[in-house]
Amino acid sequence: MARLTVISKAQEGLACELGPHWVTIGRAETNSFQIPEVSISGEHCEVLLRGEELVVRDMRSTNGTFINNKLVTEGILKSGETLRLGDIELQLEKSPGAPGAPVIASKTELLKLPKSGDPFTRSEDRSAKPRQVLLVDDSMAFLETLGEMFEVLSDKSWQIYRACAADQALALLQQHSIDLVVLDINMPMLDGAQLLAVIHRRHPDVKKVILTGHANDSHRSACLANGAELFLEKPITPDGFVSVFNLLNDLFVWSQREGFTGTLRQVGLTDVIQIECLRRNSTILEILSPGIRGEIYIEAGAIVHAAAGALSGEKALFRLLAISNGQFRVQPFHQPPERTIKGSWEYLLMEAARLRDETASFENDQGNTVRLTKAEAGKSAGSSAPSQAPDNPPKTAVEKSAAEQIMAAAHDGKWHPVEAKKKKI
User: Fold this and answer.
1) How far apart are CA 277 and CA 89, in angstroms?
2) Do the Cβ atoms of 243 and 121 come closer than 8 Å?
3) In terms of Cα–Cα distance, which of 45, 51, 54, 49 is closest to 78?
4) How far apart are CA 165 and CA 170, in angstroms?
5) Going from the N-terminus, what domains does the chain have, and what CATH number goes with each?
6) pLDDT digit string (tens) for 349-399?
7) pTM above 0.70, yes or no
8) Could you report the per-residue pLDDT of 60-92, keeping only the tens digit for each?
């Protein structure tokens, strides 16, 4: 085994054990080998031990990567030679004594990802044709990590291809029947947004997703307008990798369902909203389902407006969140016609879940399905619908909570919080 050791006095003795995986080096804490020195970029370079040599790739650092004082974008460091990052010098050495554990011995073990069959993963039928997925990022370390994660989460039902430059990505698209491209924005030569436009023009049927660590509203709007189905931030936690995988996996399901370009059956609208709000994104979720169409406006991580048919505000939001299947699209944000929602997204999602839990199916003698509270459904057993109003007098509008008003409206037949036929009582 070998290790990379700092020989400059500023960080002398700081070392990193090397193994069979790419290692990122930089000032930021997210690197495998962190060197807290101002002359080193947040993500300075990445290295891979190959036999007795070290492959070195610069990550567009500010102060450059040098091997024996020669500036390199990619090069080979041999034992005893000097690697300089900014003002810090390092050397490749053999590990003294027993070899230490590699810094990234097993990324799947490090992140403790769910095993095959975990309820948080949804691998497809193994007998089906493997999904052809192309990952495009200028970081070989991230490509390696992401590829490993997706192979584990898909139970190897995804065939993963990797490209660290635009020309490699375009060549792979020509050589293979790629189903999905996942690409970063921050790329050399041809950036991710430009590459997205080229792919969308040359391969319009390929699904395209932006996965970046440099997310902002302008990038988001431009990418969604140029053919990206989703715009996501790079995951840094196990839950983050699972969420990204589930969203990508659902893209495949959308394309297989007749009449839908995107479905809510697997990811669920609440999952999408939660991700958007946690990341403080600004976006519009357009929802289409048989019999209803609506929009949910999210601005800087807050739900500010919802509309569904003649409904608006919380009533519209709860109506849309109750849909169990249909299509949704992520659209660039623009200001809503009005702001009808002020509550926190956490409360709104919890209230929507409570409403779903408290409703039950009820079929009348005409075969129409209505939705009632479970308590009312129990009282109505053996009849087509409740025959009289509840014993307790109704609360005033001021006294009722938003959820109670919604359930009262459902009882009156004005609307119902799930996908079902209306019935006036």
Assistant:
1) 43
2) no
3) 54
4) 9
5) 2-94 (2.60.200.20), 126-256 (3.40.50.2300), 266-357 (no CATH), 359-425 (no CATH)
6) 888 888 877 764 433 344 343 444 444 444 444 444 444 444 444 444 333
7) no
8) 899 999 999 999 999 999 988 999 999 999 999
